[in-house]
Design brief:
By secondary structure, this protein is α/β, with parallel strands linked by helices. The chain folds into 2 domains: 354 residues, Rossmann fold (3-Layer(aba) Sandwich); 109 residues, no CATH class. Helices cover 29% and strands 22% of the residues. Strands 1, 2, 3, 4, 7, 8, 10, 11, 15, 16, 17 and 18 form a 12-stranded mixed beta sheet that branches. Strands 5-6 form a two-stranded antiparallel sheet. Strands 9-14 form a two-stranded parallel ribbon. It holds the Pfam family Peptidase_S10. Its EC number is 3.4.16.-. Keywords: Carboxypeptidase, Hydrolase, Protease, Secreted, Signal. It is an enzyme of class 3 (hydrolase). One of its GO terms (cellular component) is extracellular region.
Length: 465
Amino acid sequence: MNWIQLHAFLLLLLFNNGTSQSIIGALPGYSGTLPIKLETGYIAVGENDERQLFYYFVESEDNPNVDPLLFWITGGPGCSGLSSLVYEIGPLAFDIADFDGSLPSILRNPYSWTKVANIIFIDWPVGTGFSYSITSKGYSSSDTKSAKDNYTFLRKWLLIHPMFIKNRLYIAGESYGGKVVAMVAMEILLGNEAGLHPRMSLQGYIIGNGLTDPNIDYNERIPYAHRMALISDGYFDLAKVSCDGKYDNPDPNNLQCLLALQPIQECVNQLNKVQILEPKCEYIAPKPDDFGWDQTFSEDNSVGPLVLSASKQDRMWCRTYATSYVWANDPSVQEALHVRKGTIGDWRRCNQSLSYDGNQQSVLHYHKIFSKKGCSVLIYNGDHDMAAPYMGPLKWIRSLNLTVDDDWRPWHVNGQVAGYTLKYKKSEFELTFVTVKGIQLLSTNLKNVLQCYIGGSQYVLYRYG
């Protein structure tokens, strides 16, 4: 055991076998006492509890005793749960407009999903955010290992928080996390059937702009580009014939297909593929991450903040995540969050240097198994995402052989079309597919999607606007 491992081991002994929780009453950047109940902590997983998974838990702002519990799995793999908390569905947000490079101010997010649900945000897999391992071997992870670790985490978390065991439970996540959502839900199903304690009140799962099967999801990018008038009929027809409808990872010996794809790539290369209506900008963050177009979903495939670029006069808006780097690396912030000193180096929103094996190529078979169970599923996609186009989920959903219960139609927020929806049923299984329209209304629309999905009278809003 080298000195780094020894140091980590001593820390582990000090912190009660790696498990700890702290209620956060104040945060640097927020004026006054936090108006929400925020808890952070570590849960130890692994054969010898060597992997320490960090989490943020926010109680529902409505009725935490009866509101559902969401276990949120951010994409990546390797993107911190903090990213979803402050840039997507959480109750806090950075003041992007007045950010000057110093410690950013924190504002309230009026469209937070915590208005109607309790949410656990996790830094997964180990090596992400503030999660760490006491052994070098512990940093090696995969889809299957992450699913088991997340399941173990959730079991231990519920044992520490028994008041939430009976709350309706939904596994939720986005982007690459879509694969792990289905896998964790399956672990819960198997654990419940085996009689493991605690029995979890799993109601279903939620996937946003998620990855299910690359052969389907990635392959729909070019048909999506054609449907959105980004490439011509001629370009698309030639590629469709030359590539036999298979555009992702084409046969290197099929020269006709490769030649047909070249002008298509030239047409879309200058676009921001995760939000085609936004400009393509250099990300304003230290060591910007860059997932390849042909490799996986972009790590920035999420609802992020918009800020003015260097020259405010040019009116160009660009996404930036610099606020999170400055904030999360500040010593006072880490102290307030009760991060264990000496366990990580520089905090990164998305760690792309993980030792991670995407060993579960497709999770479609998990969805097929759940389609024979009594649960509820929500699949939602932003309609201007070309990296994770909405056409992928529509295609794999059709392969489940479900019955259309509520055909394609618009749904509304404040009298405006906020997207489109399609509902399927099969015995006691329900699957709702939703598109979310536009940029400016995206946050509020997502909140309404959740409100309507988790039940009751909210469905009236969902159907009639």
